[in-house]
Amino acid sequence: MGLQVGDSAPAFSAKDQDGNEVKLSDFKGEKVILYFYPKDDTPSCTAQACNLRDNYDVLLKKNYKVLGVSADDEKSHQKFIKKFNLPFPLLADTDQKIVNDYGVWALKKTFGHEYMGIVRTTFVIDENGIIEEVVRKVNTKNHTDQILNKSE
Q1: Residue 65 and residue 124: Cα distance in Å, rounded?
Q2: pTM of model > 0.90
Q3: CB 111 within 8 Å of CB 125
């Protein structure tokens, strides 16, 4: 079943694309959009990141901080950010600790092939570290609308 609305968001600490340590506790008193995606610079992941980028000012005005998480390393994140001019940090969860804590590392199936990977999921976390929304069926091209229409 995984994490639900009303649960405390698991604490985490990870390096961003520049090697800076980022912790959930850094955002106490702020709303956080924590989105998990499978892989840098792939079509659906790019569509999702660019949708959040294109609506970033709207999200900031509503006091949201945006953090992306995948199992890619810092160097991969740097290239992805530079290529698509992403204004928010991407966290490198290379040991899959965060994705496991949030329950988004799971068995996936593509074209009959089974493998472990990140299930695209977004958690909206309130100012007190409580999950106020979970988006499990992410519409990558309209993700900001999904988040804002549920949160308002």
Answers
A1: 10
A2: yes
A3: no
Sign of torsion, CA 125 65 97 82? positive
Query: Mind listing the pLDDT tens digit for each residue in 109-148?
Result: 888 899 899 999 999 999 999 999 999 999 999 999 999 9
Quote the strand ranges of 76-145, DSSP E. 90-92, 105-110, 113-118, 121-125, 131-135
CA distance 69 to 98: 8
Rounded CA separation 8/23 (Å): 15
User: In terms of Cα–Cα distance, which of 94, 146, 150, 89 is closest to 118?
Assistant: 94
Residues annotated as part of the active site: 45
Alpha helices in 66-140 (DSSP H): 74-84, 97-101
Residue type, 30: E
Q: What is the pLDDT of residues 74-89, one digit of tens each?
A: 999 999 999 999 999 9
